Amino acid sequence: MVIWLTRHPPFFAALAKDFLKNFADANGELKYLNLLQDVANRRTRAVQIELDDLFNYKDLDEEFLERVTENTRRYVSIFAEAVDELLPEPTELFSAEDDHDILMTQRAEDLTENADNSDPFGEDATGNQKIFYEG
């Protein structure tokens, strides 16, 4: 009898977070942490993960890389969760007149009596970032 052991998805979520936190480009810059700051500051809304960066990251294993390329939809959601967890606070002020901010503020005010204390906007309703792979 052969038993195949596969790693539990939380292990892959930890790898995605580690990659986003620690990947440095050729100049030693923390590429994805800087990109996340740009998202927080609303200079961009997309997080584009280059597959070459994944392939070149020293701490990533081949099984993870294989899974990312073979099951992209699943791993986009894993990276999206990692982005949500790692997204820093904004370091720049932005206009309060942004339509998106006004809508989200109004929704939050309308739903302040949310009985089950769940996120009143639901999963991915804030829509402040998008995840892309580029290969």
CATH uppermost class: Alpha Beta
Which homologous superfamily in CATH is the superfamily? Answer: mini-chromosome maintenance (MCM) complex, chain A, domain 1
What is the multimeric organization of the chains shown?
single chain
Q: What number of domains?
A: 1
Query: Which of globular, elongated, flat, extended, rod-shaped describes the shape?
Result: globular
**Average pLDDT across residues?**
78
Domain MCM N-terminal: 17-99
Protein name: MCM N-terminal domain-containing protein
Region (Disordered): 108-129
Provide a compact summary of the structure:
The protein has 135 residues and is mostly helical. The chain is built from six helices and two strands, in the order ααβααααβ. It comes from Vanilla planifolia (Vanilla).
Provide structural commentary.
The protein has 135 residues and is mainly alpha-helical. It has a single domain, classed as mini-chromosome maintenance (MCM) complex, chain A, domain 1. 49% of the residues lie in helices and 7% in strands. It has six helices and two strands; from the N terminus they run ααβααααβ. A two-stranded parallel sheet has the order 1-2. Helix 1 packs across helix 5 and helix 4 crosses helix 5 (72-86). It is globular, with a radius of gyration of 18 Å. The N and C termini lie far apart (38 Å). The model is unreliable at 1-5 (pLDDT under 50).
